[in-house]
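[step 3/7] fold_predict: job queued, chain A
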Amino acid sequence: MKIALLPNLTRASALEVTVSVCRELDKLNTEYYISNDIKDSLSDTNAIFDETDKIVSLCDAIIAVGGDGTIIHAAKFGKPILGINAGRIAFMAGLEPSELNMLSNLVSGNYELDRRMILKAELCEESGSVISTHYCINDAVIARGSQIVMADFKIEHNGVPLGTYTADGIIISTPTGSTAYNLSAGGPVIDPQIESMLLTPICTHSLFSRSLIFKPDSEFKIYSNSQTEIGISCDGESTITIDKNCFVRISKADVKGEFIRIKNENFLEILNSKLAGRRL
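[step 4/7] structure written:
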């Protein structure tokens, strides 16, 4: 098995964890690749260094070292991915740093693939022509910009008007993303095995506004005619400004994220272990 190792070295413990991963892979006589971009930090390992796109195309699986953002970003390369936690909560991590001995299961093929739903978010002109396409494992957030003023968001669901929200923004999330921004905004937690799409308004100016859960083949169109600057961010990545007269179309993508699961843990066990320290 060939492994592409993609760490986020901006995390305080990521370098130490990455070196430990390399040592474990050396014990297993496994070939692994690391991007040239971080060669100086990991030059004393036995890694093969090359360009990121090349090592991803060559590998059978990716190991991402970092938090959920790192793991989710790496999952969009389209290869099976094992996340190793070097962040805080890291819901998507398959292993903790203390469990690296279990990498032998990865090399031997003793694991399961957890296939997760992905959203496709398209930024469109008024005519419907697509300006850009983005993929979201957690969520697409359409929200106001730097000006602290609420905006009006008009939403259509499968071509039928759903309503207009006066709010800071709108979150459209997958069940995977239900434990991310959606949770912070008061939305429900959904078992990832239940494919669905969640709509959660952010700080809406209403007494009765609640999250809504829709079937997975839904299509949303989100418009805003407010004078306030509006942008879209997919999985917490850089915000893209939505020009006036443009809109966002969100639907289920034709591809899925593939996460390697070595430990025999169900969703509730993971949820309890990750959030145990944050209960009121």
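[step 5/7] annotate
Residues 1 and 30 are 7 Å apart (CA to CA).
The longest helix spans residues 14-27.
exit 0
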